[in-house]
Design goal:
192 residues; alpha/beta; three-stranded parallel β-sheet; two-stranded parallel sheet; 42% helix
């Protein structure tokens, strides 16, 4: 998702005469598990808009690394949201359908009551709850795209090497193409 944002924003800023300054920050520049590092980076960059496309996304592993999942998915967004509130900046945060329990037979909407069933879902919900009303949350699911690992690439890789694939059949999802999500959010963030 972060790489998709970078491509969309680079395309958008190259088309503008007065280019806004866009700073991309990855794992090598900022440890989201370190409050001091994150706070220092925000104070150094002084962003007017923060788009948080980062997350601890190893759903199963989060059960044994819940402290790390909560640090990245809850505490880091809380720090970003607080910075935005204190500096009159805009904060956009990505969350997940894992904040719900999966029992609803129809698609979830923003008014449905969260009920996470995993450490990952609980950590993402905690991140949402740490935000202020002026911040924006976008819930997406099953993100796939050209960059990074994702379900589509995994299935294609397994299909090329295995004669038979087995899948769980108790999950319903709505795949989100990373490029589409990035374009939509950049359009929302830059309109008005």
């Amino acid at each position: 998702l972060g790489k998709a944002f970078q491509e969309v924003l680079d395309m958008r800023t190259s088309a503008l005469l007065a280019k806004p300054i866009v700073q991309y920050v990855g794992r090598s520049e900022c440890d989201l598990n370190n409050k001091k590092t994150l706070t220092q980076l925000l104070n150094q960059l002084q962003p007017q808009l923060i788009i948080n496309a980062s997350a601890y996304t190893a759903v199963d592993k989060a059960e044994v690394e819940s402290d790390l999942a909560f640090a990245i998915n809850a505490k880091a967004p809380e720090i970003m949201a607080q910075y935005a509130a204190d500096h009159n900046a805009t904060f956009l945060h990505y969350s997940t359908d894992y904040v719900f329990d999966g029992s609803k037979p129809t698609p979830y909407n923003e008014d449905d009551v969260p009920n996470p069933q995993s450490a990952y879902g609980s950590s993402k919900l905690a991140g949402e709850r740490a935000m202020s009303e002026q911040d924006a949350i976008v819930r997406i699911s099953w993100v796939c795209g050209f960059h990074g690992a994702n379900m589509v690439k995994t299935i294609l890789k397994l299909g090329a090497t295995m004669s038979e694939l087995k899948f769980v059949d108790d999950q319903i999802g709505n795949p989100t193409f990373a490029d589409d999500a990035a374009k939509a959010i950049v359009n929302i963030a830059t309109s008005g």
